Amino acid sequence: MKVAVFDYLGLVDPDGVGAVMDAQLWQPQPGIVDAIAHLHHHGWHVVQAVNQPGLGRGSLEIGELNALQQHVQRSLSAAGTRIEAFFFCPHTPQDHCTCRKPAPGLLQQIAARYGATPQEIWVLGLCQPHIQAGLTFGAHVALVAPDPNLHPTLPLPSLPNPLPVYADWRALARALAPD
Fold this sequence. Notes:
The chain is of the alpha/beta class. Strands 3-2-1-4-5-6 form a 6-stranded parallel sheet.
């Protein structure tokens, strides 16, 4: 069993709020669709896990989130791939829930759904809370950092090896699933 867990697939919100934007404005991160397709075609289960505090604040309706996910799935389908499952935390940071990343609750849900152990899960991304959730859960983690100046500062003393860092999504996908 190989499970790849992605965070946000689209471009980072230019306002830095991390809010869901209009589905029609969504654009994938460069290379992420190819990476998802590559992993999927090499037998990986590809899922997404995101924090959605707008639901908890009331600034986002579930219909808006569903519309965005449908748009993302249509974009991926046009490239011959898909996200198998979408997991999200609807809570705000003030709720102190166990599913809001960096807590590992969403990863526990994914493991239960797929009958996977933490060692069968790879948490992939460029978001510090996403990577930290993977570390806390005991999953494999890999960071995509196209700009070396943008590496998040992560507390990594418990890792036996340095955190794998890839320059782009395609390089990461090919490292995990060589041709």
